[in-house]
C-alpha cells in the first residue's frame, strides 16, 4: 500500500467503513509508516475532539490513547476474523472428511 492509498483510507477508517482486508492492509501500513500514522492521528484527534464537544463526555481524554485503543480494537477485529476463517475452513474440511468416511463405509457395506 502506498502512502496516498493509506491517506485515502483515513476517513473510512475513522468512520469504520473499511472491509476486513482493507483494514488489515491499512493497519500494516500505518504501523510501519510514521508519516501516515501522524496523518491518522491528526484526523482522529480532530474528529474525536469534535465528537466530544457534541457530547457530555469527559473533555480531558488523551486523544493519543484513544487512537491507540481504536487501533488495538481494529487489530483484534482483523485477528478475530482471521481465526474465524481458519476455524471455519478447518470445520468444513472435517465435515467433508466425515461425509467421505460415511459414504465409503456405506459403499463397502453393499
List the helices and strands and how they pair.
Layout: H1 3-8, H2 10-14, H3 20-32, H4 34-54, H5 63-109
Helix pairs in contact: 3-4, 3-5, 4-5
Walk me through the structure:
- Helix content is 84%, strand content 0%.
- The protein is built from 5 helices and no strands.
Please state the overall shape, judged from the principal axes of the Cα atoms: elongated
Number of strands: 0
Roughly what is the average pLDDT, rounded to an integer? 89
Count of individual helical segments: 5
How would a crystallographer describe the biggest sheet?
A: none
Features:
84% helix
Question: Quick recap of the structure?
Answer:
The protein has 110 residues and is mainly alpha-helical. 84% of the residues lie in helices and 0% in strands. The protein has one domain.
